[in-house]
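Q: what sequence does this backbone want?
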């Protein structure tokens, strides 16, 4: 499928890529961390994490763009989400102004 934005963007230290089903476990741990409650409002149950991942994947397939997962390029560790111009990572919220 042809997407409106790149499926993956790489820098020297980070990879931004579209979510895949196997991100579910790492995203569940992400959603359990207190600072991640900014994205969900609270910790999510496992089934809610599954629904979030399915929603993100579906957004890519229906709209041909969507949120990115942020990965540490060296370790492969999931760091957070980049969702529609807002970067959620750690305790900080950063917007690109868009």
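A:
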């Amino acid at each position: 499928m042809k997407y409106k934005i790149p499926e993956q963007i790489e820098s020297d230290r980070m990879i931004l890529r579209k979510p895949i089903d196997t991100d579910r476990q790492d995203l569940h741990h992400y959603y359990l961390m207190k600072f991640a409650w900014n994205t969900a409002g609270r910790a999510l149950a496992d089934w809610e994490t599954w629904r979030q991942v399915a929603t993100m994947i579906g957004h890519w397939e229906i709209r041909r763009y969507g949120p990115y997962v942020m990965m540490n390029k060296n370790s492969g560790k999931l760091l957070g989400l980049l969702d529609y111009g807002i970067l959620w990572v750690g305790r900080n919220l950063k917007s690109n102004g868009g």
